Amino acid sequence: MCKDSNLYLYQNKNMQSLFSRRCFINGTLQAATLTLSEGKIVAIASEKLPHATDCGDAVIMSGCIDAHVHINEPGRSDWEGFVTATQAAAAGGVTTLIDMPLNSSPVTTTVAALEAKKQASLGKMYVNCGFYGGLVPQNVSDIENLLQDPHILGIKCFLVHSGIDEFENVSAADLHRAAPVLARYQKPLLAHCEIPDNSPLAYTDAPPDSYARYLASRPKSWENKAIALMIDLCRTYRCRTHIVHVASAEALPLIAAAKQEGLPLTAETCPHYIFFNAETIPDHDTRYKCAPPIREQANNELLKAALKSGGLDFVASDHSPAPPAIKHIDDGDLQAAWGGIASVQFLLPAAWTALRNTLTLEAFIPLLTTQPARFLGIAPQKGHIAVGSDADLVVWQPEADFEVQSEHIFFKHKISPYLGKHLYGKVQKCCINGKWIDHNSAQHNNFYSDKNTAGKWLITT
After folding, report:
1. Which of 99, 169, 183, 412 is most buried by a 10 A CB count?
2. What is the distance between the alpha carbons of residues 87 and 423, in angstroms, rounded to a whole number?
3. Dihedrals φ, ψ of 390, to 5°?
């Protein structure tokens, strides 16, 4: 715990310094004093400097980067909005997030819709926000207009129904038309990889409202087929290709082979695919429903191994909330419920809890910092502690555990499978562009209520 817990005292001064025996710099945990000024890291010393805030052995690292978040504003801010989503992000040590082109309305498939998204976020961003554009059949011919906007960090598509009719899934023909354009702009094409097929389903004797039946309804073969298609596309056009929320371990050899081949392919998974296992998910509990589904423990152990080996590049939350009625919390209807896990606030602790017995801290931290920063093209300004980098930092205790309680949740609907779970990795303080939030003080509520928004829009160069 930091001895000087009130870092707000430093906000209006030209410089502030903080020391820890465990600063993550250049891939190692080391003693260091960081000096910040005007939203930047301006100096790094290997010893504790006079007047530096002493954070003891708390880990200081670059703030987490969540490359997969659904904020849903404008149009569906009753599901989630910029205020609540970015407050929750900051509470969990996420200093930068990237907003998906759905489930807002309008969906971000045109430049006009992007402008509406940016206008909706004004004065509401407590952390840094970037934006993805969307690829749908209707905009294939003019996707270049979106790619020319410096606020677009990538283009997202679905190979299966997205859940909302206004964001249609694309066909292979659509992808072949769009890929050469994406290759020219060197911005990644992100794909939700599921393609329905006629493969025989397991668990056919399971009750229709059971989790086992839902799991069987979206088999691994759907993912495997779609990922193989995207790899072929990547090979043909050499376009940067990214597989979001990998859940099927059967696809990992395909991804590894593509990387070995030198293809510009990256892939992520999510905390819920490595924290939870299908065998222990209760029936009728729609909080666990997502697509692809959370799979069996043996499968998920292989996902952890892929994060260790580099087969998977980073971890992202895929925060996808919905109101209780749409999530069918009361009746537990797994078939009708919205598929999505509310989790942006728990990216760091849930991922660390799932991986703490698999990875060292030094191997874990890049999965939430340097790796997504490289993918997004925002390194070294983000994702690194270095002189000249942005002062986006999180101070946390990996050894400290806590129970997730609804009163501590900042996202709009206090609906999450993490409720009641014990997680390791307690966030103490978060710095966004040089502005601090102290999570061990009641003052963090004043930070939010005073509209002390510290976030900025991200742009690509």
Report:
1. 99
2. 19
3. -65, 145
- Give the separation between CA 208 and CA 7, rounded to whole angstroms: 54
| Measured distance CA(44)–CA(15) in Å, rounded | 13
Q: Tens place of pLDDT for every residue, the chain, 461 residues?
A: 343 333 333 344 579 999 999 999 999 999 999 999 999 999 999 999 999 999 999 999 999 999 999 999 999 999 999 999 999 999 999 999 999 999 999 999 999 999 999 999 999 999 999 999 999 999 999 899 999 999 999 999 999 999 999 999 999 999 999 999 999 999 999 999 999 987 666 556 778 789 999 999 999 999 999 999 999 999 999 999 999 999 999 999 999 999 999 999 999 999 999 999 999 999 999 999 999 999 999 999 999 999 999 999 999 999 999 999 999 999 999 999 999 999 999 999 999 999 999 999 999 999 999 999 999 999 999 999 999 999 999 999 999 999 999 999 999 999 999 999 999 999 999 999 999 987 766 556 666 676 678 999 999 86
Question: For residues 125 and 185, is the Cβ–Cβ distance under 8 A?
Answer: no
DSSP 457: B
CA distances from 62 to 96, 124, 189, 205, 431 (A): 10, 22, 26, 49, 9
Do the strands 393-403 and 59-62 form a parallel or antiparallel pair, or are they unpaired? Answer: antiparallel
382 to 213, 375, 376, 405, 452: CA distances (angstroms): 42, 11, 10, 30, 21
Name the residue among 17, 19, 28 with its Cα closest to residue 57.
19
Q: What HEC string does 128-195 produce? A: EEEEEEECCHHHHHHHHHHHCCCCEEEEEEECCCCCCCCCCCCCHHHHHHHHHHHHHHCCCEEEECCC
Q: What is the Cα–Cα distance from 294 to 278, expressed in whole angstroms?
A: 6
